[in-house]
Design a protein that fits this description.
This is Sulfonate transport system ATP-binding protein. The protein has 274 residues and is of the alpha/beta class. The protein has a domain of 153 residues: P-loop containing nucleotide triphosphate hydrolases (Rossmann fold, 3-Layer(aba) Sandwich). Helices cover 31% and strands 24% of the residues. Helix 5 links the parallel strand 7 and strand 8. The radius of gyration is 21 Å and the shape is globular.
């Protein structure tokens, strides 16, 4: 597979080897992922981009321990077999409990942690400050905008200080202005918390802006088509010509994956002026 890591190489902080996933729908066998091999180094920010249906969210759920597949997934030296406090997860929808306040929703991230009450309060307070929501600690989800709710979800995902943060298209439902603002905030949070991050998206600009490695997936079944390193310093400016260069590389790769577009309609004679 072009772009896939050498399966014999030294495993990374997150190591995925020969991962396959098959679903059965109406007695039909549907291969969602085919022979995925990937290493994610500690402290890196890896983004996974691909068209809808390429299996990127399925891959993230397997890494989170919410799904199983054939193959091996090793995180921090341990096989991934179930969800873990060492892996934070943020979905496209904030999924906040409407009857709980902002601070109570964030505190849910510490539900199974061993921290005492005072430490929990401090961690919640620090992470609300990190996502600029201190003034909304006592607010309820109905009183928040979509972007604010998603910041609560991010705070909940990192309040336990997980080693690995998994993000499943976290800004996909937001307007362009709010999405750009939260992308910038996520860069800051990743650096501040010294996280390892794995984000899936269908937005090429987002993948290039945030990732120091971009994994391009091809669909049906999902395979790694190419891994592109983005050796640019953070924080990044989305208007940078260097980012546009890498964006175009990924778009070219996606065009190759998609193949030639079918010609539709009848050809028309075009008169060229003499």
């Amino acid at each position: 597979m072009p772009g896939s890591p050498d399966p014999s190489a030294r495993p990374g902080y997150l190591s995925i080897r020969h991962l396959n996933k098959v679903f059965r729908v109406n007695d039909r066998r549907l291969q969602a992922l085919l022979d995925i091999n990937l290493d994610v180094e500690q402290g890196s920010f890896v983004t996974i981009v691909g068209a809808s249906g390429c299996g990127k969210s399925t891959l993230l759920r397997i890494v989170a321990g919410l799904e199983t597949g054939e193959g091996t997934v090793i995180h921090d030296g341990k096989p991934v077999e179930e969800p873990s406090l060492n892996r934070g997860l943020v979905f496209q929808e904030a999924r906040l409990f409407p009857w709980l306040t902002v601070e109570q929703n964030v505190a849910l991230g510490l539900e199974n942690a061993s921290a005492d009450a005072r430490t929990r309060e401090r961690l919640v307070r620090e992470h609300l400050e990190l996502v600029s929501l201190t003034d909304f600690a006592k607010a309820y989800p109905r009183q928040l905008s979509g972007g604010m709710a998603q910041r609560v979800a991010i705070a909940r995902g990192i309040v336990n200080r997980p080693g690995l943060l998994l993000l499943d298209e976290p800004f996909g439902a937001l307007d362009a202005f709010t999405r750009a603002h939260l992308q910038d905030e996520l860069q800051h949070i990743w650096e501040h918390e010294h996280l390892t991050a794995l984000l899936v998206t269908h937005d090429v600009d987002e993948a290039v802006l945030l990732g120091n490695r971009v994994v391009v997936m091809s669909p049906r079944p999902g395979r790694i088509a190419r891994v592109i390193d983005i050796p640019l310093a953070y924080p990044r400016d989305r208007r940078s010509p260097d980012l546009i260069y890498f964006r175009n590389q990924i778009l070219d790769e996606l065009d190759v994956i998609r193949g030639p577009r079918p010609v539709t309609g009848k050809a028309r004679d075009i008169k060229v002026p003499a």
